[in-house]
Design goal:
423 residues; alpha+beta; Aminopeptidase; eleven-stranded mixed sheet; five-stranded antiparallel sheet; 12 helices; 16 strands; transferase; FemAB-like; N-acetyltransferase; Acyl_CoA_acyltransferase
Length: 423
């Protein structure tokens, strides 16, 4: 743990860098997280600590922890998970072109300062603070740190609206992106879906027909589903999940980011935040999908949110990915009153499965004036392109018009197979 030389500039508040989450009391960190408008499981102390202790996010893997906290007489006023990055992998906000431009001009782009939970492209609160004034102080402390350590850039990824405001007030640049999220209601209608069949009836005929066909292919292949939540996820289930997870990464030519020790920590320290769907055939597991959960009854927050995170299979069955990663999770969300399902980064194919485009944002501080101007110009053009892209996607909504839905009675579907044990 180190004190920032500029701590005296923060009106008696001490800015400290922590080389590990282990130096910060979990109770204080999680209590601060609970005060934010958009808390997620991925910002919990247990999650971030497991990244370090499992050797998944360390200096050796290019993620050197330097977590920034503002303290006053033992009280944690503001904090953010801060890493010095020696590369841009595992972030899902791509700045490789920026790094190449720096290199061509003989300037160092790395190390850079990054505020985000590692390997986790899910929007949420990043700059934790007791109020807006202290969130602004945290941004100022981050900028001072960059100056003291001669860092050229700082980045806050997938940040909340409160975080965006704090950053833009300090002159940071905003970058817009797109993800695909499902909400438990049709566009323009505040009513929740009563059943999965009710959801299907809200879709255009061809979209509904395609989903039923895909689910039928999986069912006809003899696949059944088992769903386990929290402590009901056994050690054997976690081991099978890791087998699938690692296999998927290696099939794409990459080593898995997260070690087995990380998932062991999740099982022991955050079991209530995980939901596992296991596909079985001939009484043996063949594939799995893992969702993270933010349950507002267990943690503070405005919504119950399920996050699609990882999937993998040891057998190839047509349409299994769509059923296991989208249709079964949506059915579970409807049955358990969850408000939203976030499908992760990228993927236009999600639109046909009723996950609609939503804006995401990152904030960027650029020290070099000329590069800041060039990147600002680039982001202005990029933002217009992203906005146009979103408008085009909206023209392809899979939902029926509100008038058509209102005039259509719900109907059953004997060919729709859902997990028999939704808990």
């Amino acid at each position: 743990m180190t004190d920032s030389p500029s701590s005296q500039a923060l009106a008696g508040i001490m800015a400290r860098l922590h080389a590990s989450m282990d130096e910060i009391p979990a109770q204080l960190w999680n209590a601060l997280l609970a005060q934010q408008n958009q808390p997620t499981p991925f910002m919990r102390h247990e999650y971030l600590l497991a990244m370090e202790q499992s050797q998944s996010a360390t200096a050796e893997t290019g993620w050197q922890p330097q977590h920034l906290c503002l303290w006053h007489e033992g009280r944690l006023l503001a904090a953010c998970p801060l890493y010095l990055k020696s590369h841009s992998w595992g972030e899902y906000v791509f700045d490789f072109a920026w790094a190449n431009a720096y290199e061509r001009h003989g300037l160092p782009y790395y190390p850079k300062a990054l505020v985000a939970p590692p390997f986790t492209p899910t929007p949420g609160s990043r700059l934790l603070a007791i109020d807006h004034a202290h969130r602004a102080l945290l941004v100022q402390a981050l900028m001072q740190l960059c100056g003291e350590q001669q860092l050229e850039t700082a980045h806050v990824l997938f940040l909340s609206e409160q975080d965006q405001q704090a950053c833009t007030e300090q002159g940071w640049l905003l970058r817009k992106g797109v993800q695909f999220h499902w909400r438990n209601q049709t566009p323009g209608n505040a009513d929740r879906f009563e059943t999965f069949t009710h959801f299907l009836e809200s879709l255009q005929r061809e979209k509904r027909k395609k989903i039923k066909q895909e689910m039928r292919k999986v069912a006809d292949a003899g696949v059944h589903y088992r769903i386990a939540r929290g402590s009901a996820i056994s050690t054997e289930d976690w081991a099978f999940f890791y087998q699938c997870y690692a296999t998927t990464y290696r099939e794409h030519g990459n080593a898995p980011y997260l070690t087995p020790a990380f998932w062991q920590a999740m099982q022991s320290t955050m079991p209530e935040n995980w939901l596992m769907l296991i596909a079985e055939r001939e009484q043996r597991p063949i594939a799995t999908s893992l969702l993270a959960l933010h349950d507002k009854q267990l943690h503070q927050g405005q919504e119950n949110i399920a996050y699609g995170r990882y999937w993998g299979a040891i057998e190839r069955i047509d349409c299994l990915h769509f059923d296991l990663c989208y249709y079964q999770p949506l059915a579970w969300c409807i049955a358990h009153g969850f408000d939203r399902f976030e499908g992760g980064a990228q993927g236009e194919h999600k639109l046909a499965r009723a996950l609609l485009p939503e804006s995401t944002y990152s904030a960027h501080w650029i020290a070099h004036p000329q590069f800041e101007a060039a990147i600002a110009n680039h982001l202005a053009h990029e933002s217009k392109g992203v906005q146009q892209y979103q408008l085009q996607l909206q023209d392809h909504s899979p939902y029926r018009s509100p008038a058509a839905q209102a005039n259509s009675p719900q109907s059953g579907d004997a060919n729709t197979q859902l997990a028999s044990n939704p808990d």
